[in-house]
Specification:
16 strands
Length: about 350
């Protein structure tokens, strides 16, 4: 890859870090971003001065006549993220994530684009993670029931015998089972990019399934903020982080600089590396552990987290991943230290 890289959503939390790393590698970078108020309360001060910025919506087909000029690689980060507020957000998710991707791919097809295309996907496409029953082996749990959650029974159970299931590491071969609107749109993005790759001979598409990303520039104080941002906002206001359920739900927290590096590796790989890849640290932690680490990073006077027993039906219990495929095919291994990352978040304030 030697020409221009187009980064959609390149002013955002993850996209801007990718832009910085590409610029540091000597790449010519163009960014499309609509500076959506759900992600930006103002134009960010961290924008890289060596990149070109086009304020536009990827769902607007009129922009592609000019923004694709000279582009030979695409890093598609633009998306509405998080669970949102309620199902009334569904149309916005479909427009930004599905229609925006379809318009981008249509423009690439019309111009016979044949460079690499890297898609920001998500671990949410798995729904619940991988589980094993002591009597029935690996098994797919049903969606958790409201009455169980109300009673504080948070662990998924075997649909065959009712045994409590043991969570296991998720590989990329796990079946997709999206359980909220955002998850459904991320899977649709993967499908659209896969179809484009099959029809456009020679094009290379890679889906990177991000796990729980944290680090500098993490968006805060919006309905779409992630759990780390919500905890950080509470601590900044002198409040205890409110941890849903019992805090034992397990995730893989991965630093944004590691995620950006995985994108650069996928874009610059000399050989085709098709398929989805988990982008994760490989070290699962509970949400309660993460809240406690962030509280500790804020000093001895910071309030410790409290578990509330509250829940959201769209949440899943455990999702943590195998990092092996990304290591073997992309040469990607997460290197950022978790405790140092929590301190860095605290310094962000």
């Amino acid at each position: 890859m030697s020409g221009r890289v187009l980064v959609t959503g390149g002013a955002g939390f993850i996209g801007s870090q990718i832009v910085d790393q590409l610029v540091d590698c000597g790449r010519d970078v163009r960014v499309i971003d609509n500076f959506h108020p759900a992600a930006h309360t103002k134009r960010p001060e961290y924008l890289n001065p060596d990149a070109e910025y086009v304020e536009a919506d990827v769902a607007d087909p009129s922009i592609y006549e000019t923004v694709l000029e000279g582009v030979d690689a695409i890093c598609h980060q633009a998306a509405m993220v998080g669970l949102g507020v309620d199902f009334g957000d569904a149309g916005d998710y479909v427009k930004d994530n599905c229609l925006g991707t379809a318009r981008l791919l249509t423009a690439l097809s019309e111009r016979e684009f044949r460079g690499p295309l890297v898609l920001a996907s998500s671990m949410v496409v798995y729904g619940e993670g991988r589980y094993a029953c002591p009597d029935h082996g690996t098994i797919r749990p049903s969606a958790r029931r409201r009455e169980d959650l109300e009673a504080g029974r948070f662990e998924p159970r075997c649909p065959e015998c009712g045994n409590e299931l043991k969570p296991e590491v998720v590989g990329e071969d796990a079946p997709a089972d999206p359980r909220n609107v955002y998850a459904a749109t991320k899977l649709h993005q993967e499908h659209l990019c896969g179809l484009f790759a099959r029809e456009a001979e020679g094009v290379r598409t890679v889906a990177l399934r991000y796990h729980n990303v944290y680090g500098p520039r993490l968006p805060r104080n919006t309905p779409y903020a992630g759990v780390a941002a919500l905890f950080l906002s509470a601590l900044a206001a002198g409040r205890a982080p409110a941890v849903y359920e019992d805090g034992a739900q397990r995730r893989d927290f991965v630093h944004v600089r590691d995620v950006a590096r995985a994108n650069v590796l996928a874009l610059t790989s000399p050989e085709p590396v098709p398929g989805p890849f988990n982008v994760c640290s490989g070290t699962p932690r509970s949400v309660g552990e993460m809240a406690a680490a962030l509280s500790d990073a804020c000093g001895p006077d910071a309030p410790p987290p409290v578990t509330t027993g509250q829940y959201r039906l769209g949440d899943v219990r455990h999702v943590f991943a195998s990092a092996e495929r990304a290591r073997a095919a992309l040469g990607f291994t997460a290197v950022e230290d978790f405790s140092a990352g929590m301190r860095e978040l605290r310094e962000q304030g």
